[in-house]
């Protein structure tokens, strides 16, 4: 996987799992293990995550896809998916719906205030077609991969006809990083109708001298939605000619969040510091988000508290926490909470840039009982974006803000501080004014 160094941030490479084959089967994995794994590392040794299997069974869905023989006709939002099972040979294919106007079904930026049932309904309307390709095929794409590229280039839904190898299986596949995936079927051919190419994406697609990371930044600066950048990145549509690769969707999501947030942070460090402490609070999709901006140099912390009877703490007796942080020097290792850390970091950096100030950002997320189905890191990114659009409360001291903020949480401060190192530092640090006061 040497090529990954060319397209993925180093901190992500260091966090990629070494494979489940070396892990012994764990009969009763702890909440701590499940929270660390989130079905990405398979630490329990099982081939499939039992928690996600149970969660998928709880999902309500109706109807099934009908096909004319081995053909299915519909429209793609446009959407694609690149799997990671079997890497470097992976399963790749389009997302296609029988709905006449499915543009919203694969655009998570439009889902923020929708219910879980509505979001799952969108995803179950999409047939995920799969065909095996090598990740190296992006350097010299076949006709089938070029068709997928044409699909992703489109700025609106594209009429699509699939030739399937077998009938669709009515399943719901869940992941902590990726949006829920509905019915799936292997395919052997695809025809697409006329499409209207997005010139912004087309520009980087045909630029074989542009590095992938710079292409990501260029698309973002031109207003392309993060989810669309991630799709283009995933199907190998950017990067230097022969070095282009397919990137599994799960990895591409975090890679794009990482590239963009690191770019924004480099801009933040040149800004003046914020002059007061700000508190933001948001309730969304079974979670309470509490955000603080404290005066100081750029630093960032993300901490999650999973209450019992939630997806990664289904049978615990108390809240299970995970978190990580960085200061102005950044980080060189993969963050403990996984993709959510990077998705929230991008949204936090965007929020500070709108203020034209730098500061120390602490984000706390409490996930309440009943949150039994992961929806993907998009939900965190969009929630934190919305969080920083709220009107904040302003405070003269850090402790006042923390006391007010945690009044919205059922997790006590001492529990948060077991993981929130930056918050602990902010609360207990002593300023020059403290020392001046003692000398008077």
Mean pLDDT: 88
Regarding quaternary structure, how should these chains be classified?
single chain
Q: In angstroms, what separates the terminal alpha carbons? A: 62 Å
For the biggest sheet, the summary is: 6 strands, mixed
- Enumerate the strands of the largest sheet in spatial order, edge to edge or round the barrel: 1-5-6-4-3-2
- The share of residues in helices is 25-40%
Beta-strand share of residues: 15-25%
Assign an overall shape.
Answer: globular
* Radius of gyration, CA atoms, in whole angstroms: 22 Å
Uncertain stretches: 16-23, 432-440
Q: How would you classify the helix and strand content by structural class?
A: alpha+beta
- Name the helix and strand elements from N-terminus to C-terminus, one letter apiece: HHHHEEEHEHEEHHHHEEEEHEHEHHHH
Whole-number count of domains: 3
* SS elements, strand count: 12
Number of helices: 16
Q: Could you explain how this protein is built, in words?
A:
By secondary structure, this protein is of the alpha+beta class. It folds into three domains: 4-199, no CATH class; 200-267, no CATH class; 277-434, no CATH class. The protein is built from 16 helices and twelve strands. The chain has helices spanning 4-7, 10-13, 31-37, 50-58, 116-124, 143-153, 199-205, 212-221, 226-234, 249-268, 339-355, 378-387, 398-406, 413-416, 421-428, 432-439; strands at 71-76, 80-82, 89-97, 126-134, 158-164, 184-192, 277-284, 287-294, 299-306, 320-326, 360-367, 393-395. The strands form two sheets. The chain has a six-stranded mixed β-sheet with strand order 1-5-6-4-3-2. Strands 10-9-11-8-7-12 form a six-stranded mixed β-sheet, with helices on both faces. β2 and β3 form a beta hairpin. α10 (249-268) runs parallel beside α11 (339-355). The termini are far apart. Residues 16-23 and 432-440 have low confidence and may be disordered.
């Amino acid at each position: 996987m040497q090529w990954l160094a060319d397209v993925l941030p180093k901190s992500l490479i260091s966090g990629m799992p070494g494979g489940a084959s070396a892990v012994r089967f764990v009969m009763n994995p702890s909440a701590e293990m499940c929270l660390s794994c989130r079905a990405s590392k398979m630490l329990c040794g099982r081939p499939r995550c039992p928690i996600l299997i149970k969660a998928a069974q709880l999902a309500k869905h109706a109807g099934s896809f009908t096909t004319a023989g081995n053909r299915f006709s519909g429209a793609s939002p446009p959407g694609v998916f690149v799997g990671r099972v079997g890497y470097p040979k992976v399963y790749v294919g389009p997302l296609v719906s029988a709905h006449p106007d499915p543009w919203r079904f694969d655009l998570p930026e439009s889902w923020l205030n929708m219910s879980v049932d509505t979001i799952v309904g969108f995803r179950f309307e999409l047939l995920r077609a799969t065909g095996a390709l090598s990740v190296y095929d992006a350097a010299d794409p076949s006709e089938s991969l070029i068709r997928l590229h044409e699909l992703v280039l489109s700025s609106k839904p594209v009429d699509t006809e699939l030739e399937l190898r077998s009938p669709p299986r009515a399943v719901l596949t869940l992941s902590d990083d990726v949006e829920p995936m509905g019915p799936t079927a292997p395919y052997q051919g695809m025809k697409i109708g006329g499409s209207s190419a997005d010139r912004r994406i087309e520009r980087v697609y045909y630029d074989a001298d542009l590095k992938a990371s710079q292409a990501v930044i260029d698309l973002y600066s031109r207003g392309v939605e993060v989810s669309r950048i991630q799709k283009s990145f995933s199907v190998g549509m950017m990067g230097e000619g022969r070095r282009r690769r397919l990137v599994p969707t799960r990895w591409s999501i975090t890679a794009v969040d990482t590239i963009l947030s690191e770019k924004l942070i480099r801009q933040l460090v040149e800004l003046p510091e914020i002059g007061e402490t700000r508190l933001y609070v948001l309730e969304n999709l079974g979670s309470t988000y509490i955000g603080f901006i404290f005066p100081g140099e750029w630093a960032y912390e993300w901490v999650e508290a999973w209450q019992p009877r939630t997806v990664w703490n289904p049978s615990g007796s108390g809240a299970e926490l995970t978190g990580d942080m960085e200061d102005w020097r950044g980080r060189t290792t993969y963050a403990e909470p996984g993709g959510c850390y990077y998705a929230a970091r991008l949204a936090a950096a965007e929020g500070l840039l709108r203020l034209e100030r730098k500061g120390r950002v602490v984000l706390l997320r409490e996930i309440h009982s009943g949150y039994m189905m992961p929806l993907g890191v998009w939900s965190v990114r969009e929630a934190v974006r919305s969080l920083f659009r709220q009107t904040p409360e302003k405070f003269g001291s850090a402790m006042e803000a923390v006391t007010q903020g945690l009044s919205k949480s059922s997790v006590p401060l001492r529990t948060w501080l077991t993981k929130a190192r930056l918050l602990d530092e902010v609360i207990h640090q002593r300023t020059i004014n403290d020392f001046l006061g003692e000398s008077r």
